[in-house]
Design goal:
Blueprint (H helix, E strand, L loop, with lengths): L1 H14 L1 E2 L2 E2 L4 H30 L5 H26 L9 H16 L2 H12 L2
Antiparallel strand pairs: 1-2
Amino acid sequence: MTDRLLELTLDHVATREQFGRPIGSFQAIKHRLADLLMTLESARSASRYAAAVYADDPDDARLAVAVAGAVCTDAAIEAASEAIQLHGGVGFTWEHPVHSYFRRALGNEALQGDSRSHRARIAELIGI
């Protein structure tokens, strides 16, 4: 989901023009997209590590799964929020797919727990 949001946003900022140039050429937009890419890569790493640990020994994977839950939840919410912002007003309409991803991210957070609950689980697992 996060990678699709980044892809949709990259397509939009490459075609949307302001002051006679694509908005993706502005430094502020580039920095926001770079930050989003770093968030996406962190989430990928955390989830792949948790999956690998779980495949080896499901009982030993609780900490890795909690870390992946916290990182991936934050990544999904941040990607959805940034996509809405960078798409401007069109991103928050029912007809645009970014809005659907935003609702999905919030629904997943409510269903699977927010990053705060995952971090509380991490603290419990390491004895803090």
